[in-house]
Amino acid sequence: MNLISNTASTRGRLLAMAALCLATMAVPARAALKIGDSAPDFSADAALGGQPYRFVLAEALKKGPVVLYFYPKAFTSGCTVEAHQFAEATPKFAALGATVIGMSNDDIETLKKFSVEACRNQFAVAADPGAKVIQQYDAQLAVKPDMANRISYVISPQGKVLLTYQSMDPDGHVGAAMKVVQEWKAGQPK
């Protein structure tokens, strides 16, 4: 009897999780910022290589474009895959003059660990526990508005959106951002 009840309980939990995943995929995407829109300025607690600091978008844009990507939750499978991909590409972004920063509603203590383990000390991740920046960038997850959707932006040094790439699939974000940063770089005076 106990085995049957445990199996039914496990099956129920699995079905509930599957339903949540399907509901998340079926909800229409929010209206993200569009190419040419002004990117809202922000500052946030961030971590790079486990070390906390204050990230200020306006300061980062003085050095070149910023690749700002939002992700739902540190240490989940898709977010870890995406962080690994951005970590591998960060030296290429840096060579093109771009800064990479990830953002979620995780707390800074979690992100200090995530910046080392998943981001491999290559790029910073910023905390947005009140989801204020997530809201400014129209990056809320429709079924859970205090959590970020998976969306990447490239922001020009002039503060304009050059790319909006939205997909819950972590694959594709790095490639789309890299293409736009390369095009930006090619258009700069030599």
Our measurement of the CA-to-CA distance between the termini, rounded to an integer number of angstroms, reads 75 Å
Do you know the CATH architecture of the largest domain? 3-Layer(aba) Sandwich
Task: Name the assembly state.
Answer: single chain
CATH topology title of the largest domain: Glutaredoxin
Query: Radius of gyration, Cα only, in angstroms?
Result: 18 Å
Helical stretch tally: 6
Task: Estimate the mean pLDDT confidence.
Answer: 88
Low-confidence stretches: 1-6, 12-30
What composes the largest sheet? 7 strands, mixed
Order of helices and strands: HEEHEHEHEHEEEEH
Query: How many domains comprise the coordinates?
Result: 2
Strand fraction equals 15-25%
Strands across the major sheet, in which order?
A: 2-1-5-4-3-8-9
Q: Report the CATH C-level class of the largest domain.
A: Alpha Beta
Instruction: Please state the structural category.
Output: alpha+beta
What's the overall geometry?
globular
Number of strands: 9
Helical amount among residues, as a percent range?
40-55%
The CATH fourth-level homologous superfamily of the largest domain: Glutaredoxin
Describe, in plain words, how this protein is organized in 3D.
The chain is of the alpha+beta class and 190 residues long. The chain folds into 2 domains: 1-29; 31-186, 3-Layer(aba) Sandwich (Glutaredoxin), CATH 3.40.30.10. The protein is 41% helix and 24% strand. The chain contains 6 helices and 9 strands; from the N terminus they run αββαβαβαβαββββα. The chain has helices spanning 2-26, 57-61, 77-95, 108-117, 132-136, 173-186, and strands at residues 43-48, 51-56, 66-70, 99-104, 124-127, 140-141, 144-148, 151-155, 161-166. It has a 7-stranded mixed β-sheet. It has a two-stranded antiparallel sheet with strand order 6-7. β8 (151-155) and β9 form a beta hairpin. α3 (77-95) packs parallel to α6 (173-186). The longest helix has 25 residues, at 2-26. It is globular. Residues 1-6 and 12-30 have low confidence and may be disordered.
